[in-house]
Amino acid sequence: MKSYREYNRSLGWGLDLGEPAVTTQEEIDEFRRVSAAQLGGQQLGLDFWLDEDPEVLKRYRIWANALRVPEPDEAPNKWSASGPAIMYVYAMTGFEDGLTYSFHNMMRTMTRAQILEQVALVFRYSGPRGMVPLARAFNAQTFPDEPPDPLVWPTGWGPDPEAFACGADFGSPEASADDTQKIVGWYEQLLGEVPRHVAILARHRPDLLKAHRQRYENTLRELPKQTEPWALLQISIERGFAGGIREGMLLGRAFGITKPQILEAISWGTFYGGNESLDLVAEAAGDVLDAWPD
Questions:
Q1: Is the pLDDT of residue 1 over 60?
Q2: What is the DSSP string of 234-265?
Q3: Which residues, including other chains, have CB under 8 Å from residue 183's CB and lie 6 or more apart?
Q4: What is the pTM assigned to this prediction?
Q5: Cα–Cα dist 41/53, whole Å
Q6: Per-residue pLDDT for 74 more than 90?
Q7: How many CA within 13 A on the CB side of residue 55?
Q8: Fewer Cβ in 10 A, N or C end of the chain?
Q9: Domains of the chain (ranges plus CATH)?
C-alpha cells in the first residue's frame, strides 16, 4: 500500500496508466482508497467514471499527470504552487466540494498560517464573491497543530517578503510623486519593463496604484516569493489576460524560477484554461519563454 508521499507527485492513485483500456477491480478499489485519503472522500465526478467507463478516467489522469514537470532532486512531498490558481477557480465558481477537499489535502503538508496566506493571495483575485465559499470551506476544517508531512519547497524557492518592497511610504493613502516612481521603478528593475496597467494607474490613479501595492507587498510572508508570479501566470491564462501572462513570466524569471518550473506553471494553466489558452501565452510572452535560461 503506497503512502501519501509516494502518491503526492503522481496522479495515478493506484490506476495502471500504462494500460488505459483495461482496469481491474483492484485498481478501482485502490483509487477509491487513495481518493478518500487525499480528499477526505470520493470526488463524485471522478467516481462517476470509475463506474461508467474507467478508460475515460485513466486517459484524463494520464493527461493531468503530464502537466507536472519533474525535477531530478525534488522531494516526494514537494509543494505544488498550482494550488492558488485552482483554488481561485473553485472560489469563483462556488465549487465548495473542491475547496473542502483542497483544504483537506493542504492540511497534510501546510501549517494553518501557510494555508491562510494562500487564501489571502486568492482573495486578491477573487474579491468578496470568492471569499464566501472560501470562508465556508475553511471554517468547516479542524486544523492540526502541525502538519503530519511538512512540505518541501521546490528547488531554489523560499519565503522572501523583502523581495516585494519597493520603498513607497504606506503611512498615508495619498501617493506622492516619489511613491509612484518607487512603485514603477520596482517593475523597471525586476521586469525590465513596466506593465501597462501599472503605467496607466501611475499616470491617472496613483492613489489606487499605491493602495493595490500595499496589498501586493504584504501578502506573502510564509510562502515562497515565487508563488506570486506562478499564481499570476496561471490565473491570467485561465482568465485570458495577456498582460498578466507576460508580467507573471517576467517576474518568475526575475525570481529565479527555472525553465522546468515555468513550463509546469504554464502547463497547469491549461487545467481549466484548455490547451487553446496557450495561444495567448505564445502571443504575449513567447519571446520571454524562448529566451529562458536553461
A1: no
A2: HHHHHHT-HHHHHHHHHHHHHTT--HHHHHHH
A3: 166, 168, 198, 202, 209, 210, 213
A4: 0.94
A5: 20
A6: no
A7: 4
A8: C
A9: 4-66 (no CATH), 161-290 (1.20.1290.10)
